[in-house]
Structure formats: structure tokens, C-alpha cells
Amino acid sequence: MNAAAFVWKRRAAGVGHVVLVAAFVIFTAFPFYWMFITTFKTTLDLVDTHNNPFLFNRPPTLENLRVLFFDTQYGLWLWNTLQVGIVVVIITLLLAVPAGYSLARLSGRWGRQLAIAIFLTYLIPPTILFIPFSRIVGELGLQDSLWSLALVYPSFTVPFCTWLMMGFFKAIPHDIEEAAMMDGLSRFGAFVKVVVPLSSAGIMTVVIFTLTLVMQEFIYGLTFITSSSQYTVSVGVPTFLVRGDVYFWGSLMGACLIVSVPIAILYNFFLDRFVAGFTVGAIK
Fold this sequence. Notes:
Elements: H1 3-39, H2 43-47, H3 63-70, H4 74-105, H5 109-122, H6 126-140, H7 146-152, H8 154-170, H9 174-182, H10 187-198, H11 200-216, H12 219-224, H13 233-241, E1 242-243, E2 246-247, H14 249-269, H15 271-275
Helix pairs in contact: 1-14, 3-14, 4-7, 4-8, 4-11, 5-8, 8-11, 9-10, 11-14, 13-14
């Protein structure tokens, strides 16, 4: 192969790489663009089939956001969702992190079987569990309370996050813990001071995953909460912005955009830590 052909192939490969990356970026960013442009479109602009749906055919408007914040309790729903999310994240971390570590260090056939059994509980559909959960919530007197959601949501966040953390802990060599214990730390001390900091990427993944599930969960929120002032975003938005066959598309897209952008930013901010080697340079 001569030099000219090699240079041509290298340039072609570079162009192909740029095209693929651009296509992927457009594909992933398009939902956010669609939500953004729909949020600020007028109703006449949205319903006119002759208009270009990807552009503003009429002057942008803030009416959709006005409806969202002043004609509904969207701000309160955001606050409710945040409260439930924080409590569920704390419960999930307190249970999933030590459970994942224990399963990662539990060798033999029983360890693998127990890990699979815990993960399988995550696959149980919520439509099967909300009836027995309703009985539990009623017995505890937590109907129409955000505490009912804080109690129920860990039932599907803890199993998956335990499995997730188990994978992170398995990637940490035993030599690190043994070296820490030789320096005078107990096993618990080595876990807290050595293993947990090395698993910060996994812990952040658990936090983002848990917050995402809390924001999008609908069945339990609809079942256990009846007062609009106690709604979370996933229940309040479709309940008040979908009235029969009337859809407030602009306000719906605005609500989705406001919730999804912080999660996307947080995920991308820590993306390098998710994909990097979690213990690179730990043993030296």
C-alpha cells in the first residue's frame, strides 16, 4: 500500500468516525431539543399540520410555563419528589452498599445463588406487589403520605443497586483490604476508609439510578397518594395536564424538560468516573 492510499484511508476513517459520533449526538440530543421547542411553542403552532414541527413558525411563548407553574402545583410536586428521592437514596445506600460488599466477598456457590435471588426480586412487576403493599401501608397508617413511597420504593431500588454495587466491589482487589488490615484497620475500618472511597463511582451510579426511578415511578404513587398536594412529579403532571382527550403538550414537555435536564447533566458530569477503571493506580 502506497503512502497516498494510506493517507486516503486514514482520512476516510476519520470522516466516518466524525459522522458516526455526530449521528449519535443528534440521536441522543433530539429528545431534549423536541421538549425544548415544544415547551415554547404556541398551541396554534403545535396543532397546525402545515407548520414545520422542528422550528418556531410563530413567535415563542411562555404561556406553557405559566400554566405549568401557576395553574398546577408543579413546584410542590418537585419538592415532594426531591424529599422522597433523598430518603430513598439514603435507605438504598445504607442497605445496598454493605449487602453488595458482603455478596462480593462471599465466595462459593451460595454467594452466587444468593446474588441471583436478590436480583430476581427486582424483576417482579410492580403491578403484582402494589396490592400487598397497600395492605402494609394501610396497617401502618401511611395512606396519602410521602412516607408510604419512601417505604415502598426501596423494594425495587435495593435489589438492583445491591447487584450493581457487587460488581463494583468485585473489581477491587483483595490486596487493598489486606494491606489496610495489616496496617491496623479492622475489616469494617478497611471497608469504610478504603473500599468505599474506591467505589465512589458506583455509589454515584446508585444515587442517579435511584433518583431516576423515583422520578419516573407511577403505579405506587398513584395507588398510595390521593391528595394533589402530596403528588410526586410522575403522578401530578399526567393527572393535571391530561384532561380527557385534551393534552397540554407545551406544559407537559416543559415539565419533562425541567426534570430530565438536571439528571442528564449530573450523569454526564460523572460519566468519566463511570467508565474509567475504578481501581486504576490503587495498588502501587
